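ok trying this again, last paste got cut off
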Amino acid sequence: MLEVLADVLAVSGVRGTIGTRIEAGGTWGIRLEDCPGEAMHAITSGSAWLIVDGAEPRELTTGDVVLLAAGTVHTLASAPGVTARACDAAGAARARESGETVTIGSAPARTRLVTIHYDHDPAVRTQVLRALPPLVHVRADAGAACFDEGVRLLGRQLAHPQPATAAVLNSLADVMLIQVMRAWLATWPAEQRGTWLGMLADPVVGEALERIHREPSRPWTATTLASAISASRATLARRFPAAIGQSPGAYRTQWWMDLAAVRLRDTLHPGVSGRFGWPTASRSSGSASPGRSRR
C-alpha cells in the first residue's frame, strides 16, 4: 500500500520548496493569508502559538510540525491574543531568494521555525494532500520512526549552511511530507474513511488498489478485481467505495486518465514537469512505474 501512496505522490507531482525562515522573540505575531499551496510549519527551536480562524489556538513546541490546507488563513504568534501584523509578502519573497532569515518580535530570538510550501499538478485528479484534513498537527513525541530526526536535521541545515544546502533542504521538504503523513495516518485512521487514504485502513481495498496500479491498462471491474485478490465481489463492491468514496471501475478510469495527463504533460514539457513512465504492464514484468523530478 505504501507503493500505491508513492505512485500517487509521483503522478500528482507533489513537491516541496523551503519558504520563509523565521526567528522570533519577545511579543510577536504574524498573520498569513495567501500562502501558495499547502503550507507546513516546522518548529526547530522554541515555541509558538497557531491560531486558525474558527478553531481553538494550539501551542507548538520544538519539533512540532503542522500542515495546513491551501488557502488556510492563520496566525503564528508568541501567545493567543497578541496583535499580529500582516505578512510582508514582498519582504518574505526577497528573504527566500537571498536565503536570509526574517526576524520579528521585540526581543532576541527564542523561537525558530521554517515554512515549507507544497504544490501539485492541478490536472491530476487523484491527490493525496486534498484527502488530508485542513489542519494536521504532529507533535515531536508522536513516536513515528525518524520523524524527530527529520525536524532536527532540518534545523541543523538551516543553522549551519554548507555547500549544496539548498539541494539538501529541498530533498528534506519532500521527506518531511512523508514523515508527517506517516505519523498522522498512524494516529487518525477514522478521518481517512471516505477519502483516498481510506485504503490504508482496509487491507482488501489496499490490495485491490495495488492491482490497479500494477496494471492500469487492464479494464478492471469489481468482478475481475475481486477474483484477482481472492475476495468476493460483494465484499469488494461494499468496502471499496466505503473506504475511498469511489467504485473500483470509477477509480481505475480516473487513475488511467491521470496517467494520460502526465504523459501529455511530459510530452509537451519534458524538461519541466519531470519524467514519468507510462506503465502498460505490471511492475513484475520490468515496466517503469511513475517517477518524478523537481521542477
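PB: full thing came through this time. The chain has eight helices and eleven strands.
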